[in-house]
Amino acid sequence: MKPASFVYVRPGSRSEIVAALAEHGADGKVLAGGQSLVAAMNFRLARPGVIIDINRAGDLDYLRPSGDVLAIGALTRHAAFHKPPVEGPLGALLAKVVRHIAHYPIRQRGTFTGSLAHADPASEWCLVAATLGAEMVIANNNGERTCPAAEFFRGTFTTAVGEQDLLAEVRLPMLGAGWRSGFHEFSRRAGDFALAMSLAALKLENGVITAARLGVGGVSDRAIRLSKLEQELVGKPPSKALFQDVAASAQAGIRPTADIHGSSEYRSDLIRAVVGRALTEAAA
Amino acid sequence: MAEKHAITLNANGKDYRISVEARRTLADALRDDCGLTGTHLGCEHGVCGACTVLVDGKPVRSCLMFAVQAEGQAVRTVEGLAKGEVLHPLQKAFWENHGLQCGFCTPGFLMLATGALEAEPDLSEAELRDILSSNLCRCTGYQNIIKSVCAAASEMRACPPSADR
To answer: Over the stretch A1-23, which tens digit does the pLDDT of each residue have?
Structure first.
């Protein structure tokens, strides 16, 4: 249970990181919080030749609200969300979801952006990014580009981040007035990986849903945004019957993955439960 | 032969000048290079919490950090909790409430609770239970661990110990 040898480099800023990535390419691996990577290295499931430790790049440790987005730097730890990072519905949503991510000591070190770059199918932040339609800022030695969440996640542990790229920033849309959210996760014990989870955000005006975001995670190779079902919610007043219909449609539309923790059939039942509960909480 | 890094590790206020490979975890460096064997290693992949130490005041898994990463930061281990012969309130509470059986998980629980309570002294029992759920006790003595931490939390609120150790 000891990692294989590697070369250690510790750039002090974003520009030094992308220069190091350009130099080391396929051998290089970015180390942020390390709560997944170092465990994988201890098991020798990962054997990077060069570790590029970004923990001293102070210019990546930020939470920046600007206009209608919240920009999250690559060194922002999960624990930064223990209290709402911004006023309003988005801050409340993030502070609610963060409590489900692993455990307290893991959240002191693991990073928001690292979770997205790792792209574990059971990651809560990946579900948030997919459902809310986050925008990723990917930087390399030649500059930076942005990538919408819909094109970012490519499958289990696979994203649009290339060998020489750094996921430098993630931008979440600020949910304005009238938005409220619900999140429900099912796992066997507190802190375990989700067997199924759902995030719902509803905009309510005069008792009618005027906009909706709905997603499911932990049941597939990546988080799933249910755009069609979002449209079914719009224009209707929230009701138990509506939410039951939408939850049933969510279940019908997904054939979940199976693993040692739960069969496909079991997870399928969970989808209906978690979607229904997330919607109900959002409307409460 | 892999390159070694000459680093200074500050643990419990004392500097340790050590030479380690980059792959040396903080846990192994504390135990084998600094002789601080109070930090225990259970699972070595971040699940059990036995190796929890404080780095710049925050409880972290020392098996998921490399020693080179802790250079220039203040590390605190279970050896730094007591003031001479005087036990830290958490250690005293574990003693008085039968909070340890075999003792293997105890250093991790002590450092986890120390970090959490120093950051937020007013944590409720429910919040403390949630935080303590991150560490495993093979003797399954969880009830008394929770009892001990809650007792210590009350005492620390009444009479906060200095965090300078």
So the answer is: 899 999 999 999 999 999 999 99
